Fold this sequence. Notes:
The protein is mainly beta. It has two domains: 7-103, Immunoglobulin-like (Sandwich), CATH 2.60.40; 108-400, Beta-galactosidase, Chain A, domain 5 (Distorted Sandwich). A hairpin with a 2-residue loop joins β4 (55-61) and β5 (64-68). An eight-stranded antiparallel beta sheet has the order 16-17-18-19-29-25-24-22. Strands 5-4-8-2-1-30 form a six-stranded mixed beta sheet, with no helix packed on it. The chain has a five-stranded antiparallel beta sheet with strand order 13-21-27-26-23, with no helix packed on it. The chain has helices spanning 45-48, 304-307, 352-355, 394-405, and strands spanning 7-12, 21-29, 37-42, 55-61, 64-68, 70-72, 79-84, 92-98, 108-113, 116-121, 124-130, 149-153, 175-176, 182-184, 187-189, 199-211, 215-226, 234-246, 253-263, 270-272, 281-284, 294-298, 311-312, 314-320, 327-334, 343-347, 360-363, 371-373, 379-389, 409-412.
Amino acid sequence: MKNFYLLSLLVFECFNVTAQACVCIKVEDNFKIALQRPVSVELDKEKKDCLAKNILLIKRSQNKMEVIPYQIDPNQENKIWFMHTSIDGAKINYCFENKVDQNEIPLFKYKKENGDLKMSFGNQSLIHYRYEIKFPPEGVDKLYQKSGYIHPVISPKGDTLTRIQPPDHYHHYGVWGPWTRTKIDNVGVDFWNLKDGQGTVLFKGFDNINSGPLYGSFIAHQEHINLTPKKGPQLAINEKLMVKVWKNNNPDQYFIDYTSNFSSPSKNGILFEAYRYGGGLGFRFKEQWNRDNCEVITSEGKNRAAADGTSAKWCIVYGDASDGQGSTGVLFMSHPNNQSHPEPMRIWPMNANKGRGDMFFEFCPIRHKEWKIEPQQSYELNYRMLVFDGKITPQEAEQHWRAFAFQPLIEISK
């Protein structure tokens, strides 16, 4: 039986706490997760209606008061997100209060520019999502053209961690997740290896783009297209890619939540065959990393030499920073509800790319076992990435994974 770390939230009317408060949230950790993490609570219409423009969320703990950024979820308007940190298991009150002495809070921002949706926090650029077609370099087959991927992913200090269209694999595009060996009505379709001309994944449109003091987010509609039918391309998979970018209280860290929700309109569905590549979350790291300057630590204690093909709850990939000052990297986390969790991984071996040892990481849920996608049914894969400068210890990684994996127990009452 899994040990779930539960966070109890009690929402109550708190006019007795302060004359200016309209709603309060009491938070008590049953088990301490000593990290700042996003939590949410759903308010009924009466409580939600009190959140006027001049309402602030005030944290009250140990005789201290602090303004806490919060954000209303655009996809579920009665859901409120905010950041919570456990303090020695103490009960903490968060109250929505009518105050005017608010200090300026840095905001997540976004802009569309040259085919990229660019997301930032304050003056810090974080990630770009490519929604227009990116053509391959001159002289390279046009089959490699692509949209619907994340690049760059930028570390807090400004180090670009992703890479696209490397000459060794022109079909690699930053952060992306096409399926490789699939069968549609017993016909093989490869959405990963673009040069084969069997399939591709392209951006279709944005369902939502949102930004505020707590996170920036977007939902992108992506289409997985079967190019093999003689009568022309056919839609094989509809995907909603849901991305949230969070900032915690560590200046050297931020989070990316990456959720793929997908279904197949095909009459007989689609079979994802077992293979070492495909789906999940793929991440091609920067050109400067090789066998000598980057390393891996998994939740099961595997290093880079031993990690490929094994399964893990989380995996740290880190290496030298571009300026030679310390290290940088990504902590990848797989949600317990994901297919095949703890999730198999594809991690390039030390002798990859003619012995250079370039770095590629993927959570690959179909590495060891096929997955039948039934027609018109919805499936979901949920990941979190902690982008960091410096280092993350295995103990810290486990805490971050627990904060991601174990959802709060929420109790709402007057």
